[in-house]
Fold:
Amino acid sequence: MTFTLTLSGADLLLLLPEMLLTVWLCVVLTMDFAMPRLPKDRLAYLSVAGLAGVLANLVWFDLAGIGGTLFAHMFVVDRLAVFFKIFIVGTTILVILASVDYVRRFRFFKGEYYFLVLMSALGMMFMASANDLLSVFITLEFSTFGFYVLVAYLRDDVASNEAGLKFFILGVFAAGLLAYGISLVYGETGKLVFSDIASPSATPGLVIGFLLIFAALGFKIGAVPFHSWIPDTYHGAPTPVTAFLSIAPKGAAFAILIRMFFVSLAAFKPAWVLLLVGASILSMTYGNIVAIAQRNIKRLLAYSGIAQIGNILIGLAAGTKMGGDAILFYLLTYLFANLGAFAIVIAVGNLIRSDEIEDYNGLNRRSPFLAFAMLVFLLSLAGVPPLAGFIGKLYIFLAAIDEGLYTLIAVGLINIVISMYYYLVVVKKMYINEPTDPSPLTISPPMKVVVYAGLAGTLFLGIYPQPAINWVVAATLMFSNLAGPAAAAPTLVLPIGG
Amino acid sequence: MSNEAVPLNYVPILVFLVVAVGFGLVTLLAGRVLRPSRPYKAKLKAYESGSPLFSDARLQFPIRYYIIAMLFVIFDVEIVFMFPWAVEFRKLGLLGLLEMGFFIGILLVGFWYAWKKGALEWD
Amino acid sequence: MELFFFYYLAGVIILTALLVVALRNPIYSALSLLIMFFHVAGLYVTLHAEFLAAVQVIVYAGAILVLYLFVVMLLNVKREDRYHPQFPIGAFLGLVIITEVLLLAFRRSESGTPPMPPAGSVAEAVGNTETIGDVLYTTYLFPFEVASLILLVAMIGAIVLAKRDLFEA
Structure:
């Protein structure tokens, strides 16, 4: 048996965005150590320029319909992958712009920060294209390594070290679960590609393997009961890293979850719908209820993130093409709103050196622009029309209604009401309370760009969502043949009973 | 290569292992059995050429050992990847050379970084 | 005969793995880990994967274990006096998972379809190193190149986290 590899020009074209980013990040790193007297802000703008080039490349892929699979179906470029890559690259551009001021305050290792952010972005781009379990494992670990270092970046700060340590230990434990699950699935089926491991009979090994893989991916997205790393990590990490961590890895992990559930596990839908309904209800309820008690805005946004993931899991529990569309659209709205909110937190944190909600008192007096932007972002996260979050939640609930998940929708609606409370508490403090120090706050141009981008995205997606909806519907075309819950009757061999 | 249940070529290693462990055990046991044991307190103190002890021998472990060990792990894994490539070098041809060139190139960037940032300095 | 080797190696692996977490002195734990690595290499040899056995000894026992020991000495980790207070919960969860895995193992022999073994006959013809060389740089090129990027990020990350004073201010 001979193994051969044929790489034609068209194949290499599929790898072009990743190759560009790899070359660019080597350039950034080289410039960092070869020109030590270069002001590090230039590296930030250089990274953004490179990412803009990659983004243009991806948009071209999307418009020209370029796609294909490489390396025996391990690496796939389809509309779904391109969507997630655009999502990740867009997030990274905005995160880097938002970090410029923050990184200026570091004493050393300023340039490596941008390099590590680019590395994590590259890893997540690979995750969006991963089509078999080996690629999933390698790319997931690759993208997380950058984050382990970034979370612990402030070496003189105890909170950052603790956050890094907790994240690292729990993260490698999740990686161990992932490896064990992959080995069980491989042992049962002998294959690794997602479409090949869709076997018709659910032996116990297969079930346990997939459950372990779901546990590891659940760790990545922060679903309950795999959420315990989120509050401490988000609290202790440098705020731009928290912003990055709260959006991009969740998107990339959802790319893998969508592929796994809709392709490999399509035959067992009745079984995993229950699992996802449970995870969704737990995440929404736990996230919203605990968020009410928070005093620190980063922890508040952490728990709100857990609740938002619960909302997105409703779409996954629906298990249809519309559910997939809803997940993608919700991720877009979540990107703009969450990144905008974190941008405000970074800006205020840079200026007043505190992240406690009490210090947001009277923000309207000090900077009406920041307070208004925060209002828009928090209301979008809560799901108030005419903002993007409302359309996102509506889409998800419509997908769930189609599948008859009425309990889930009822819990979701109750949770929207609960979440409004803690978002509006922050709004009230900003607008109605008096500030302790009424001096005005101004923000730098890169931060303004990020806030305007967030506002533009949130308002545009809320008022005129049709182009975005067309885009996500086109991205999930491959799942058009997903059957409803009553169609398949699989043979389920569970370890308890028959 | 033979196709038996247990590769017989490795049994010499097992014999070697047994002999090595046995050698250590036998000498220690023989010593324990044959030697007289008459301990008294002065015998148990640490030996410092006759003078009494004045400090604990432990120092703060220098971190440069750790950095060198970390860099060693990374380059060790790189070498491990090069072994199968070297064995199949002729069959993999030009494409294999280019792939390995990319691999080493990426690690060269890291090596250059470590050099310039002073991670390889001894003090 | 083969079964004897497997039981011996597997038994020692489980025993030393338990010792790693159960022993009080961290250096003794590291030494148990070393013994475990050698026995895992032995398991690889019984599976005709000699290259993996050699890599296991060179990389795991030779580099990673050294790193563990350096960390133990760097942090001056002392002997533990008592077990962690959450030990009963951990033990209970561990028992639950072991029971599940045993049920899985015995259910295997009852259900009709055995798992598909991958085609392994090619390994004996040419040897493990050649086979890995054949397949790693052709079919599995993508994970291989991503591995190089992982090593790069590990190098930069290690230096960022460990190095104190620097070339630049």
